[in-house]
User: What shape does this take?
Amino acid sequence: MQKIQLTWLRKNLFNSWYNSLLTILCLLLIIQFIRKFVWWTIAEAQWQVVQVNLPLFLVGRFPQTSYWRLWIVLGIITFLIVITWSVFITQKNLIKHKFINLLVPWLAPTWLLSCPLILWFMGGGLGLQSISTNLWNGLILTLLMAVISIVISFPLGILLALGRTSNLFIIRWFSILYIEIIRGLPLIGILFIAQVMLPLFLPTELRLDRLIRGIAGLVLFSTAYMAENVRGGLQSIPREQIEAAKALGLPTPLVIILVVLPQALRAVIPAIVGQFIGLLKDTSLLSLVGLVELTGMSRSILAQPQFIGRYAEVYIFVGLLYWVFCYSMSLASRRLEKQLIN
Amino acid sequence: MRKSTLILAIAPLIFMLGACNSESDKTRDPTNTASNTEAPVARNTLNTVNNIKKRGKLICGVSGELPGFSFLGTDGKYSGIDVDICRAIAVVLFDNPDAVEFRNLNAKERFTVLQTGEIDILSRNTTWILSRDASISLDFAPVIFYDGQGIMIRKNSGIKSLEDLKGKGICVQTGTTNEQNLADQMRKLNVSYKPVVFEDVNITFATYSEGRCDAITADRSALVSRRTTLPKPEDNVILDELLSSEPLAPAVKQGDSQWTDLVTWVVYTLIKAEELGINSQNLAKFSTNTDPNIKRFLGTEGNLGEGLGLSNDFAAKIIKNVGNYGEIYDRNLGKNSQLNLARNQNRLWTQGGLLYSPPFR
Assistant: This one.
């Protein structure tokens, strides 16, 4: 055992004198860096700023007396995820539980129904004390914006991709125009237009909520990229399959829904998830247009007089939060791919 | 193939032209109708107060990221001197200092948001300068904080004056008047320097503390408060030379003088209260005071509030809920805060400062 390790070391790290030198140099650098970093985290960093402000980071200015509503929302989401995941796994393993089979047709409607329910618990109204969207800050806002934008931009992106490959002239050119214009603009520009310019054009009575404007900007942007990702998948489907399906007498919509899309989407899962992860991180740009999401909240917290200059601690903590969510998304997508391939 | 790429290149241009056209149509429209019938204009511009009352809360644009002026406390509540101004206005409108919705704004979007009417008042450490007052259709309320731009350097750098900064790197935050002032001053002195520009104030100061620029320029209030967070505060000095004066004042949209008057006199109330020696602690004692000036000020006599569309005891309400100017200053910037800024120019005129309120009568 030890010998194998030694040969591995020799083969990979010390196979010539300059490689050995490089290895030692890099090792020294890495050790130095880690030692400094660990020393800083333990001895020099003042994590008090994170400790004291933890509720602000996570749920922002959401009223403390209404935290129970957020717990319910968390409960609903966890429950739905667990159910969906278990259904998914048992179906693929071909173990047919009677109970789970009963659940399958209800899954999609339950998810749909849960959306207004969650928004009701967060926003209030209809018997619950209403909570202005102005008070939805921090991590919860980041996740909300990301999830809503993802959910809306995914179907829109598929439609645009289909439009771009369509034979109808106007639809095709509209899709191309939209995609190319949006892809040529920076996201921050689109967000500024949505947030600042839009009210100039709209009548004064029509006041869109700031969150809706933010979501609109994100959706406009990510739809174009989503469309290009999906188009990649569409092009990977051999024409013969479509022709065969048509020869069998399937109408075009069914050909797309039953034959093309399932294969096309499966082929581009990594790209789509990459896009989603990017979108989650892009929500941090909303802090520049005055929405106090996770990044905006950390900037606000950094202005507390007792914590001025503690930016390293705050940004490391926030970075960790972003990483946890992005990494779990990429983990989930890897699982999903495996399940679909089997 | 070539033809299609050509169309692709031209199409966005056509689209943009179209967008511009429809834009200018829309902006032209309201003015046309306005010139035809004058009534809608009058109604439109005069109802800020009504709008706020109908809405049930004041919407106040703040920075949200500036210690002492506006920031989120650990309890999730906004505080700072800019914030207290908005709370004072909420008190006279709703009798409730918490009837304010604070909105974080960055330096670039603040004026647009005020023009579109998305916020009622901009209380965001904004410097009162002619071009802003005249050309971006703003009205400024009285100055609530006299600041000035300073320069901080390291003691051992040997820099004694602005001339010594020749060829040195100076950290500055972009989008602020600081950037412009620095350029102006240095051009006047004919000193070339290397501007090191950042969007984020934290990064600006971090860069200076890491020694990547030789000097940093910002408003003196910011320099003093940030110096306390540097690893060795005593090794850094702020030069005596002032690059500019920065009177910070709240601003409202131009054209509604009722609303401008209200904001103006709320600020004067804070100053006058300090001048008269009335604060939130001793307010009760003054209710029986026989001095006619004080009686008029507190609304036990006369009808000063009526002209502003307020109750006559508006001053008493403000003092009770947010205190007088001195209290607000000490709490947020002065001796009762972590920043511990000396009052200097921000003393009353009777004590050698610049704060003065016209009479209340």
About this structure: The interface with chain B takes residues 52-53, 55-56, 60-61, 132, 134, 173, 176-177, 180-181, 184, 192, 195-197, 199-201, 204, 207, 288-292, 296-297, 299-306, 308-309, 311 of chain A (CB under 8 Å). The domain at 137-341 of chain A is CATH 1.10.3720.10 (MetI-like fold). Residues 73 and 117 of chain A are 8 Å apart (CA to CA).
